[in-house]
Amino acid sequence: MRKKHHHVKSKFVALENNFLNTFFSGLYISANEFREIGAKVGITMGMNSRELLIKELLNKSDSEGTLQQVVTLLDTLIEERTASYHALSKDYPAAAPALSMLARKAAATKSLLSRETQRNPYE
């Protein structure tokens, strides 16, 4: 008889998928950066794939009450990346259209982050 694995579905699936896919998010956040954000809020994470680190960071911070701090740190990181895109577009005008698209996607990711991490008042 095969063992059945109980897979607990994350409540941040859309956000996890967005961060995982650079095409949609407009930015790449490394596994190390996710671990550093976790360490800043007291969550120690092991060496895992980016997918597992993203899931672990969001779900553990939610259960430990540090989700808002994580959101703030991710917002800051997204702002830094967006500022880099704007600076690069000034230095390299030929790349401006592509960098502008990345900046728009990063802004949409920031909006998704805010929307997905808001508490439902009816829960």
Helix and strand topology:
Elements: H1 13-20, H2 22-25, H3 31-40, H4 50-64, H5 67-91, H6 96-116
Helix pairs in contact: 1-4, 1-6, 3-4, 4-5, 5-6
Total beta-strand segments: 0
**How many domains in all?**
1
- Order of SSEs, N→C? HHHHHH
Residue fraction in strands: under 5%
The parts where pLDDT drops under 50 for at least 5 residues are none
Helix content: 55-70%
Describe the overall structure.
67% of the residues lie in helices and 0% in strands. It has 123 residues and is mostly helical. The chain has one domain (13-116). Helix 1 (13-20) packs antiparallel against helix 4 (50-64). The longest helix is centred in the middle third of the chain and has 25 residues, at 67-91. The chain is elongated. The model has no long low-confidence stretch (mean pLDDT 88).
Name its key features.
67% helix, 0% strand, elongated, 123 residues, mainly alpha
Brief summary of the model shown:
This protein is mostly helical. The chain has helices spanning 13-20, 22-25, 31-40, 50-64, 67-91, 96-116. It has one domain (13-116).
